Structure formats: structure tokens, C-alpha cells
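FIELD: query
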Amino acid sequence: MFKFFVEPHQIEKEHIVITGSDVNHISNVLRMKQGERLLVSTGNDREYLCELAELSQDAVTLTILDVYGSNRELSIKVTLYQALPKGDKMETIIQKMVELGIHRIVPIETSRCVVKLDEKKAAKKTARWNTIAETAAKQSKRNEIPQVCMPMSFSEAIKHAKEYEYAVIPYENAEGMEQARQLIMELADAASVAVFIGPEGGFSEEEIALAMEASVVPITLGHRILRTETAGMMLMSVIMFMNDKD
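FIELD: result
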């Protein structure tokens, strides 16, 4: 069953009216017909089961069949501070992290990042990244669309660490698997956590020192070196599995 997001003002007592680009997607891409069912959310824990009632060139009118809460969102709010990777890896990272339950994604520029974005390019990239996040949220039937923020510097990102209950930074030279396991178990019941992931060349020693000064904890993810597009997903997968409640 397909899922779409709307603004609160589009929801009436018995109907929901979808407008914008989703009209073309429903009509011409999915070729949905009257009587077919779909899910609608406004980005919170309330979900609407609907039936397609009417199709026009500018709008799709849905009849609300049922309204219920959903437990598709994690109780922990995880923010990923992802160093800008090369190529189109960022798009894959965003897509998969949204599927895994991420709350927010903040691209960061570190000393070893190959990719450098000026303000114009950053704005264009961010708009595309948010479109990818929305598409992934629909596909995975999330009740919220995670935000992808404008890129910021590593030093600026570290200043936000104190806003979270926990902040961790996977680091290839970190040791102590048992300590890492214990900390990750604690993360599963936390209210919020920040995860800092480095670029292809990893974080510099100076950046790790700066993170530790801000009480960001370096942790190991095992004896193998993970790629930048793998490390965050690996950690998020564990957090999701341990946090997802029946």
C-alpha cells in the first residue's frame, strides 16, 4: 500500500485532498483508480487509511476510512552528522538511513573531505537530498519525513553535541569492543543521540581531539574498517533493532 504526506490543512472531517506533484504520481505513474486504498500522514504519529474517491487534473480526493496511531517511529531521535562523501554516496546514505529510522541528517565538511560545496551548490544538493528523504519515507511507510540540513563545518557540528543525551564518533583507532557494546545498549533507551561519521579518509587526530573535548565518545565498530557509507548504517541498524518495540 502506497503512502503520501500532506499538510494538516489538507485534512477535512471525512476527506483528504492531495495536490501538487503527488497528483501526477498517483494518476500517471502509479495509475491508481477509484476505490484503491492508500495511507496518508501529516508527519506525526497519526496515520489515515484512505480510499481514492475522485481524480482530477489538479487534485486527488480521498475518503478517510480509519484513523489510528502507528509505532513506525523509533522512540530515540538519532541525528547523523555525515561527512560529505564522494560521488552519489550521500544519496544512498540518506535513502538507507531514512529506511532505518533516522530523525535528521546533517552533512558536514571535515579536513579530509574531497567534496567542497559553495553555498549555491549546497542549497541545490540539499533540496535534492530532501526529495530523496521524502521518497524513502514514503517507501518505508514512515510517519515523519527526516530533515536533511544544509552542510556545516565539523567544528560547528561539534558545538551541537551538547544538545544530545549521547554523542558518539566511530573511529578506526578506538579500542574496547565490550565498552562499545555497553554504550550501544545504553543508546537504545536514550531520548536522543548524535552519530558522527567521517569521510573516506577518516577523521584527523585533531578532529577526534576536538570531539572528545566536547564529550563526544569515540567507539569502535569492530575489527574491520568500514566505508563511510557503511559505518553509519551499521550503527543505525543496531540502534533500530534494539530500540524497536512491539
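FIELD: remark
The longest strand covers residues 46-55.
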